[in-house]
Amino acid sequence: MRKVARQAAPDGVDQYLRVHKADIVAALLNGGVLAEAAAREKFRCICATLAAILHCDYFALLDRLRRDYYYFAPEIAPHAAMDRDGIERAYADLLQSVDTVLKDANFVELPHDEIADAHARRTLLRVEVAAPLEDFRDVRFYRRGRHFEAFEQRRWFGLRRRKIEAEVYDDVVLLVATKSTDEIGSRRKLRALERRKIRPGSVLLKYFRNVAVADLKALFPNVRVVMSSADKLMLGVPALAGGIPILLNLYATITVLFVVIGFYLGVSAAVEDKDMKTALAALSGLVALGSFIVQQWIKYQRQSLKYRTELTDNVYFRNVNNNAGIFDYLVGAAEQQECKEVVLAYYFLLAAPSPGPAELESRIESWLRETFGAAPAFKVGEALATLDRIGLIRRDGERVSALPLDAACTQLRGVWERLVPLDSRKPS
Question: Whole-prediction pTM value?
Answer without folding.
Answer: 0.72
